[in-house]
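Problem 3 from the worked examples.
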Amino acid sequence: MSAPDLLARDGLLQDRPAALRRLLARPELGSLIAAVAVFLVFAVVAEPFLRVSSLGTVLYAASTIGIMAVPVSLLMIGGEFDLSAGVLVTTAALTSSLVSYQFTAVTWVGVLVSLATTLSIGWFNGWMLGRTKLPSFIVTLGTFLMLTGANLGITKAVSGTVSTKSIADMEGFESCRRLFASEVTIGGLTIKATVWWWLGLLVVGSWVLLRTRFGNWIFAVGGDADAARAVGVPVARTKTVLYLGVGFGAWVLGQHLLFSFDTVQSGEGVGNELIYIVAAVIGGCLITGGYGSVVGSALGALIFGMASKGIIYAQWNPDWFKFFLGAMLLLAALLNAYVKRRAERGPR
């Protein structure tokens, strides 16, 4: 049972109007307030922050996090983590580039092989989790280390350097770029393809979570896997599908990186998995699973985009950005834990 259901059942908010109770029970409420606060701060201290061109930059920064924050938040609601998500993006880009350059000279072949690769890695994580019963922290940490080594080792063995060769002159490059790395300018606002991918994943993820039986399964396995299994929920299969979702998100973002710059550095992506998790937690996902929101993860990604660019526009020392991110994570985790405790304790 999700935290909003617990709040309603226990009567925690029964003394408030129904609409207000529903609002206060939403997991993304805290992230919405935080997003408004961050926007107002930078709107006051950084004049360039309010320019139309700056909005496009903020949206782009948010979308490169949000594309992965959507599947990562679903996975966390299902009670699991994926520490390999950051380097999996790089694996997706490297696979597409290396296959295209070394074997086919057609970029679409590399793109499809990359999709099969990332989905296979996602399936492997889910299968290992179900078969071994090891914590997802251990399983995906192992995958993280293997992918980090494979990205570097295979790239150096094939290309002789730590980066891939340019594929800009290959057949299919321009059509791939239009799909994954194009941009459109409307009234001075430049919107990159990642923003559309992000919005599409956000809509699909929200619909799956809130309007389908599979969404109920996600909440169930994250809240209590044993109880969910007892009532017939396919726990292992549900978690495997969630890992496949992470693989798909990594593929989309990896193709964007490749077709934006046409080369890839094999050491990129390390540490980005923590940013995806931070976005999900700021958005209302509990570390313990069973509670959260896809929309909240989008707000978490937007906060990241506003903060990373707002600090630059305000001419603050960018070294403090990680401090801000850590503080936001702790505050969000404390708020989420407080809501859960109050929900479980009931009215006093």
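Problem 4, a separate protein:
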Amino acid sequence: MLGRIVRSTEVYLVGVLLVLSVVLFLLNPKFATLENIFDVLRNNSFLGIVALGELVVLISGGIDVSFTAIATVAQYVMGVLITRYAIESVFLAFLIPIPIGIALGAFNAFLVNRTRVHPVIITISNLNVFYGLLMVISKGKWIYGFPAPFRDFARLKVLTLVSEKGVDYGLSIFTVVWFLIAVVTWLVLRYLPIGRKVYALGGNSEAARRAGFDIFRIQLFVYCYIGFLSGLAGFVHAELNQMIQPNAIVGRELDVLAAAILGGASVFGGAGSPLGVVLGVLFIAFIKNGLILMKASAYWHQVIMGFIIVLAATLSAYQQNLERKRRKGV
């Protein structure tokens, strides 16, 4: 038991995060301030929420790269409705993108199950379909000028502190939502029957079929789950930016995949945990924040993200091989 914990991806990531934090602190002491840490958590809540949805899909043996388009479509419809009809209820606006995300996720699941085409092909195609249709209909028009309650909600903090300069800062409501989603995802995967079926399908799809699992229902759950979280993340993104740009989210697929894989989600399915994904998101967030504090060129962000994805995928494959050898007693 202790040996398995020591070998876990989460333990490695905690160690790497500690080392990374010390290095960034030495390079720029502002990194370790509580104000900066709270800002990093708040600004990466969108990434953290969607990465948890991608985790569930990867565990099932699938993959989804259309979530950015789903989040964009969901938030854009919300933006149109709340500005056109002057909707001031934040709760009502919150409910608008959720069913849209679930519906588009269900569409992905239907195509993946019925066509038997690899999920990456299906979801890349739908990424272009969803996003392309939105751009045609919206003509790329930005949406801004949200009602006052939306601006107030964006500034809502669960814990409020005051800096030496007299500026308020604290733990954002969006960070709390992200962590709550992580807990819910962990509970679903660990204790609900559907969670165990998701792991079983990703571990051995043929064995799952022979065991009598309804494969379509499992796929429907995982793609609807990431659709649900994409809709929620679209709402969070709109709140954080107080505007909706149709081209603001699409293109961030690699960040999410990197966070999920770096956190221990196997590209082959059957492995991964919400805690690992949260740590993976923090790793990426800390690196980007460090680059910003060091005023590094934005192009370096892309280079480093590409390197992280290659490294994470390599480590994932290496761990899979070690696990197979250990089970065989080699």
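Solution to problem 4. The first strand starts at residue 143 and ends at 144. The chain has 16 helices and four strands.
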